[in-house]
Amino acid sequence: MRTVEQIFAVNKIVPVVVINDVEAAVPLAETLLESGINAIEITLRTPNALEIIELLVKKVPQIVVGAGTVRTSADFFNACVSGAKLIFSPGTTEELLAASRSRYSDIRFIPGVVTPSHVMECASRG
């Protein structure tokens, strides 16, 4: 598995996508790839988000698929099971930090941080 640094060295832009239309997901990902964008964040704000993540992982393996708006350990685990390789959270909680060190510790977790203290605390926890 690539490090976050390696992923972002290649992917300077990670579009944050709120999508519920399963049929539109693959064409969207293919268009991003054709435009030189090799990563996508599917937010968990729609009922079909996990299904879309799973579909993109299977149908468009050239794109790094991430899950966004991950707020609970259940969100974290569901996104991992769906195949997400990046987990984006709007904040940082003990629950999410513990989930990131679970059996899915190979999935890259990018916690939301606001202050330098948040950055230091998350860095100290890996």
Which properties best describe this structure?
alpha/beta; 126 residues; five-stranded parallel sheet; 6 helices; TIM Barrel
Describe the structure.
There is one protein chain. With 126 residues, this protein is of the alpha/beta class. It has a single domain (4-124), classed as TIM Barrel. The chain has helices spanning 4-10, 22-34, 49-59, 73-82, 94-100, 116-124; strands at residues 16-17, 39-43, 64-68, 86-88, 108-110. β3 (64-68), α4 (73-82) and β4 (86-88) form a beta-alpha-beta unit. It starts with a helix and ends with a helix. The mean pLDDT is 91.
Brief account:
The protein is α/β, with parallel strands linked by helices.
What is the helix fraction of residues, given as a range? 40-55%
CATH first level = Alpha Beta
**Secondary-structure element sequence?**
HEHEHEHEHEH
User: Which range does the strand content fall in?
Assistant: 5-15%
- Order of strands across the main sheet: 1-2-3-4-5
**Unreliable spans:** none
Proper CATH architecture: Alpha-Beta Barrel
